[in-house]
Amino acid sequence: MGDLQTRRGEWLLRVAQWRESGLSQSAFCRLHHLKLATFGYWIARSNKSTSTAQEQPLTLVAAQWPKSPVMVLTHSHCRLELPANIAPEWLAQLIRGLA
Questions:
Q1: What is the pLDDT of residues 27-59, one digit of tens each?
Q2: Which of 17, 34, 69, 94 fits as disulfide partner to 29, beta carbons 3.0 to 4.6 Å?
Q3: Distance CA 19, CA 17 (A)
Q4: String of DSSP letters for the chain
Q5: What's the CA gap between 55 and 30, in Å, rounded?
Q6: What per-residue confidence (pLDDT) applies to 67?
């Protein structure tokens, strides 16, 4: 996975976590030691990508890494790798937040 895709996935995950947190952008950034301007940029990118993305099915691929199982989610140009033992409720919230 390229560095750009990794960074994009990490920021989109942070945006989803912020949306679920109920915190203001500035409070979330202070809590997680993020730059507010950078976070705002990724929120805008997130909004733009969800409003212009074509409807495409979400593909779930189970993968096995040497030390721990991993779940890989791919959609359009995004790839998200998560521990396979992640709570289904949390994953559902993440997917709703990215939708």
A1: 999 999 999 999 999 988 888 765 544 555 666
A2: 34
A3: 5
A4: --HHHHHHHHHHHHHHHHHHH---HHHHHHHHT--HHHHHHHHHHHHHHHHHPPP---EEEEEE-SSSEEEEEEETTEEEEEETT--HHHHHHHHHHH-
A5: 35
A6: 58
**Model confidence, pTM:** 0.49
Over 90: is that where the pLDDT of 98 sits?
Answer: no
Closest CA to 72 of 62, 64, 58, 87: 62
Token pair of 96, please?
Answer: 């709703």
Q: How many CA atoms lie within 13 A of 91 on its CB side?
A: 14
Type of residue numbered 10: E
**Residue at token pair 């939708």:** 99
* pLDDT (tens digit per residue) in 1-15: 457 778 888 888 888
